[in-house]
Amino acid sequence: MAAATIKFLYRLALVLSVLLTSAAGIVSNTTLVNNGANITDGETMVSDGGSFTLGFFAPTGAPTKRYLGIWFTASPEAVCWVANRDRPLNDTSGVLVFGSARGLLLLDGSGQTAWSSNTTATSAPAVTQLLESGNLVVGEQSSGSILWQSFDHPSNTLLPGMRLGKNPQTGDEWSLTSWRAPNDPSPGDHHLVLDTQALPAAIVLWQGNVKTYTTGPWNGLRFSGIPEIASYSGMLSVQVVVRPDEVAYIVTTMPDAPFSRLVVNDDGTVERLAWEPVSRTWNVWMRSPRDLCDSYAKCGAFGLCNSATASTQFCSCIDGFSPASPSQWYMRETSDGCRRRTPLDCSNGTTTDGFMVLGGVKLPDTDNATVDMSATLEQCRARCLANCSCVAYAAADIRGGGDGSGCVMWTDGVVDVRYVDKGQDLYVRLAKSEFAAGKRRDVARIVLPVTVSLLALTSAAMYLVWICRVRGRATRLAFLQAAERPNSDEAMIDSLSAPNDLGDDDFDLPFVSFGDIVSATNNFSEHNKLGQGGFGKVYKGMLDDNKEVAIKRLGKGSRQGAEEFRNEVLLIAKLQHRNLVRLLGYCIHGDEKLLVYEYLPNKSLDSFIFDAAGKHVVDWPTRFKIIKGVSRGILYLHQDSRLTVIHRDLKSSNILLDTDMSPKISDFGMARIFSGNGQEENTNRVVGTYGYMSPEYAMDGIFSIKSDTYSFGVILLEIISGLSITATRFTGFPNLLAYVSMLTFVNLLRHGAYGKMIRQLIWWIQPFQGLVRQMKFYGASK
Length: 782
Fold this sequence. Notes:
The chain is α+β, with helices and mostly antiparallel strands. It catalyses: L-seryl-[protein] + ATP = O-phospho-L-seryl-[protein] + ADP + H(+); L-threonyl-[protein] + ATP = O-phospho-L-threonyl-[protein] + ADP + H(+).
């Protein structure tokens, strides 16, 4: 009965709202207004199809400020155009007058002009109409010629049919400017324009005089940095028009497509929104900037940004270049960019330079580019080589498929390059010697395996004799030499079978054939890939016994070399604990090195605690469980195993979670074993991940069990705060430690068991006692 009553009341309210809207004013159902008419506050003009409404409104949170605007009828908060952005009315006495000498005239209660369309005076009768497109048009009644239209004066929204660009003949520009705030339509700091100074055209977002984002140049189908355009190409037609009187970006709607709009928000983001009539919500089709790599020139000149490499560093240098300021890059300040390793050879009209193909990228900023749409790509290459200032080229138009057509050439430098879905090929100019080095490596890959294979036949017999005589004295050097020689599987396996630092002569870890691994992973298909990192890639597989496994395939250029591979095989095989990941087997095939682990479906800890959705899965009891499990694993390594083991690379991404969210420590490639009474060692080879390293290890190479304890403390902070030690968001703080000390845990430090745990944690890992005292004083003052 209650449900039926509610439904009846809802329908009654809907009918009443329609009736009230119809009676709101004389002009409410009129879309064509003659000279002399007006609209007062409370009256509206609605387009023929009812999609748009013109009238007075007050932004949410600012009820005393009244503006004349156009909004989407079904969603009144979606204001598309505002007349008096700079001069709000202070009451409801405003009136819009049609057909004055100045066209449309907005007057306040005292008769003062708050806004005018400044329409050119005409003796012919004029009419004003709100079109179904959302365009408010003033035109001559007899000829139909347009005297003024709101589409020529955008606010912060671009509707289908509007233009973003410029008229080169008159200098008129069509651009978007954000609101000052969500409740303040006055012009804000963010300005979206089509850059017509250089072609191909690109859309640029400015904050004041600072360029903050570009879409990449237009390539005939889309802007090279906005792959999302391809996803809605069946609903919206997107084009860049280049004519003597117009260079403009124009979007038109396909039949039956949902209504959409492009908005520049007051926070500096640009969104393509589409209306969902059933749920009555706006769905986000595109948002820019989408990530850190979209920040303009994030990696500087000749830098390359990759949003998938957050575990190392977003920025790298294009092949053939190195950081211009290594110390700044070390501190993640990469705006200085990169410089050539080898100067170009260009003199007397001749050159030996060549081009390297950089595939799948957003093309560079076109401020220093030139375009020739009639040239072929081969002609483009020749022109670039003939110009000593030319550093890169690309196809200007990819609509024809293949390598594309047209020619864009960049001189002096390239900036704002990043990897992106559906990216283009960029041809970067390099000195001949850079290619010679690559060719030498290619030759070595062919010649060395043949030579080593012959030597291996002789060495195998000698090795068997040697292993019988000196069994028990296998050295790390022997393993390294075997590991680095292609096609030396036997030597590698024998080295793993040799007596090891744990004191065992027997080694019973199963060897898995390469063929079985290929079959288990469906030939290392992308569908089976679980993830990747600096070491290589991890695949999910199913062995013959129907057992799910995770297979780590070490990359050929992996940071995990032969010594680390041997460490991981021996340590995980011999150190058995429920909070250490289980190694089920290994494989060595030519220069392929693979490890077979138990499969843990919940992946790594960082995929939960740093993910906006995943962090809600791990509640406080689960986080406590993870913390205790990790601590048990570390205690076993440091105290309860036969020898003391220092992990040296403890971090959130190396903590894996099983189906019960129990943690397991993984990645023992960097581990060290302490024998006897050893408490501390020194190394010149500092490995691990900065941020998780203790200061004495990162700066002086000194490591001990305290190094792992420091890393454990950082992981604790990350688990409790949900923030990454490597995050760049801590404005005004050097890192997560300082951020947590000063702000995040002020209340927790004062109350409860978690506060006690955090206070102890800060004392464990904070080397600067002054900061801790400052934190305690700050907490006590609350």
